[in-house]
Specification:
Blueprint lengths: L1 H19 L20 H8 L8 E3 L4 E4 L2 E4 L4 E5 L3 E4 L5 E4 L4 E5 L6 E5 L17 E4 L10 E2 L6 E2 L9 E9 L14 E4 L6 E8 L6 E4 L4 E8 L6 E4 L5 E8 L9 E3 L15 E11 L6 E5 L5 E18 L1 H5 L5 E18 L5 E2 L5 E3 L26
């Protein structure tokens, strides 16, 4: 019933957005091409409907833009978005994707973040609106373990390869709101989805707010990240699979409005737990805040399907289970390949549990160490100072 209500109001929101938002004039983003290989915003949207934009630039000026459908930046093309820009999706089929060989240069600031949002938020309260558009998708050429390359489950773009330092551009000080459009029962957009993204890409100070699936999801690749905020997303706040390896610091995740699943879901590959490269990221300075035992599977950290992981300075609060490790392969990596160093448990019913592939219980007390002075993302269970000002924390 909830999804039906969203669609009904989404039509009204879309219609209102069209009448109240102008996309012409310099104060609304500018529409003047800067060269023969340049496209205006409207030209870029039109060209994207028949395939990725190739070998061209799309350079915006600060202002407001309507995203009426998909925008796909392909080989040799770059999308430049300055600080203070707001891009509002007016269609459930809207999303922004950077294909292999394309780049994005989107650099906001603390006082002027770049915002991707939905027209539905005009009519719907902040407790709703999830899944009203796609989200932001990046596809790179870094290694994955699913195959030498694959097709993204959303946007149908190729990703993966043999370029661990592949560069898809720069993302800084960005909010992605109300994303996560459902495609099928098994395919759903996230806030920010990173498919085989390489270590040459910058992902820093990003918030995924109130999406209908995961806030951030990594499908293989080698990208490193820092200062990520994932709040109120209806599935996992963070998710990885397909052999992702990256170094990360300062992640803050919080469920909201009595919805959400896990703080973090971590896999190697569900179809083959042993395939390489094995997922083995490092995450330091992490806070995950749940809803107690209200969620569908209320776990702070769920580590399974052969993943490795290295965590340090962690705060887990308000989860039925703090750390849940599953399957023989992941269990075998404890403690050298899978360990949570210095975790503070706050209002946790079961600190940690393990389950082997056969379904039997396993003692995993050697998978973590306790530090009751851990600060997590910087401020314990509370929003850290570095996330103040540019994030949307309404209703959380």
């Amino acid at each position: 019933m909830k999804k039906v209500i969203f669609k009904f109001f989404g039509i009204a929101a879309l219609s209102s957005a069209i009448f109240v938002t102008s996309c012409s004039g310099d104060d609304e983003g500018g529409e003047t091409p800067i060269g023969s290989d340049s496209l205006t915003w409207e030209q870029a949207l039109s060209e994207s409907q028949s395939g990725p934009i190739q070998g061209k630039t799309v350079t915006l000026t600060a202002g407001n833009y309507e995203l009426t459908g998909k925008l796909v930046i392909g080989e040799g093309s770059i999308l430049t978005i300055p600080a203070g820009t707001t891009i509002t999706a007016t269609s459930a089929n809207a999303y922004v994707a950077i294909a292999q060989g394309g780049k994005i240069d989107a650099q906001g600031s603390t006082s002027s973040p770049i915002v991707f949002t939905s027209a539905q938020s005009i009519w719907l309260p902040n407790t709703q609106g999830q899944g009203s558009w796609g989200g932001l998708v990046i596809c790179g050429k870094a290694p994955i373990n699913k195959a030498s390359s694959a097709t993204s489950e959303v946007a149908d773009l190729t990703y993966g390869g043999n370029e661990p330092n592949d560069n898809s551009g720069i993302l800084k000080y960005i909010r992605i709101e109300y994303a996560g459009k459902i495609i099928t029962g098994e395919k759903e957009f996230n806030g920010l989805t990173l498919f085989g993204v390489g270590a040459g890409t910058t992902v820093s100070y990003i918030q995924a707010y109130h999406g209908s699936d995961d806030g951030f999801e990594f499908f293989g690749g080698t990208v490193n990240t820092d200062h990520l905020v994932s709040t109120g997303n209806e599935d996992d706040q963070f998710d990885w699979t397909e052999g992702w390896n990256g170094t990360n610091s300062y992640w803050y995740g919080k469920e909201g409005f009595s919805s959400g699943n896990r703080g973090m879901e971590c896999d190697n590959l569900e179809a083959n737990f042993d395939v390489t490269p094995i997922s083995e990221p490092t995450v330091s300075n992490l806070t995950l805040v749940g809803l107690g035992d209200q969620g569908a599977e209320p776990q702070g950290l769920k580590l399974r399907h052969g993943t490795k992981a290295h965590f340090s300075n962690v705060v887990l609060a308000n989860w039925a289970t703090g750390i849940d490790i599953q399957h023989d392969q992941s269990l075998s990596f404890i403690p050298s390949g899978l360990f949570v160093q210095g975790v503070k448990f706050v209002n946790i019913i079961t600190s940690a549990k393990g389950t082997n592939t056969a379904g039997g219980s396993v003692d995993v007390s050697n998978a973590y160490s306790v530090n009751n002075d851990a600060t997590g993302a910087g401020n314990g269970v509370n929003l850290p100072d570095w996330a103040q000002g540019w994030t949307n924390m309404s209703g959380l």
